[in-house]
Amino acid sequence: VAGDPRALIETVRRMYARGWAPGTGGNMSVVVPGPRLLITASGVDKRVATVDDLVVVGLDGVQVAGTGRPSAETAVHLELVRWGAKAVLHAHSVWNTLASLLAAGRGQLVLHGLEMLKGLAGVDTHEHREVVPVVANHQDTTVLARAVHRVIAEHPRCHGVLVAGHGLYTWGASLVEAERHVEIFEFLFEVLVRAKELPHGTVDLS
Ligand SMILES: [Zn+2]
C-alpha cells in the first residue's frame, strides 16, 4: 500500500483511544502520491485496526489496492480532498454528537471567544468566529457528499462540518494537522455542551 500506512493506523488507534472512533465508528484518510487516497476500509474495528484494514482509491473513487471495501463514507472524503484537504478525519464522539444535535435546527454552530480556537490552522485570536456547518444525516453518502459540497462552498474557510446525530468531519494540510483539528474541535464541543449544563446565563459562548 502506497504512502505511509503506519502513520494513518497510528492516528486511527489514537482516535479510538481518545473516544473519537468507538467500535467501527469513524473513518480516516490521507492523500498519498498518485494522487490517491489511503482510507480505512468499511466496518473496521478501530481498536484493533492494522495496515491490512486500509485500502487505496483513486480520486475518482475506484479502488486500486487493498482487500477490504473502502469506507462507505469515501465519497465525503473525496469531496473534501477536492477542496484541498490532504487528510480527512471523521469522528463519532459523544461531544460532537451532542453538539451536532444542539445546532441541527440552525444549520450551523458558531464557536467564539475561546483560546483553543487558535489550534485551528490560520486562526490567531480567540476572537475568531468559527462557523461549523451542520448537515442532515443521510445513509446515501453521495447525498451527504453533495450536502458537504454546498456548505463548504458557502463557508470555504471553515475547518470542520458536523453531520447531525452522527459526527464530525475535519481535515488538514497534513495528517498531523487534521488530527490536531479533531482534538481542538472535541475540546471546543465539550466546552460548548458542558456550558449548557451551567446555570442559565453563566457562560455565553454565542
Ligand atoms: Zn460516520
Structure description:
By secondary structure, the protein is α+β, with helices and mostly antiparallel strands. It has 5 helices and 9 strands. It has helices at 5-17, 74-82, 94-103, 141-154, 175-195; strands at residues 27-32, 36-40, 54-58, 63-65, 87-91, 108-112, 129-135, 160-163, 167-172. It has a 9-stranded mixed beta sheet, sandwiched between helices. Helix 3 (94-103) packs across helix 5. The longest helix has 21 residues, at 175-195. It is globular, with a radius of gyration of 16 Å. The chain starts with a helix and ends in an 11-residue tail after the last helix. The structure holds zinc ion. Residues 73, 90, 92, 166-167 line the site of zinc ion.
Quick structural gist:
By secondary structure, the chain is of the alpha+beta class. 33% of the residues lie in helices and 22% in strands.
Low-pLDDT residue intervals, each spanning 5 or more residues = none
Strand content is 15-25%
SSE sequence, one letter per element: HEEEEHEHEEHEEH
Distance between the termini: 45 Å
Q: Which structural class best describes the helix and strand composition?
A: alpha+beta
Report the major sheet.
9 strands, mixed
- Arithmetic mean of pLDDT: 94
Percent of residues in helices comes to 25-40%
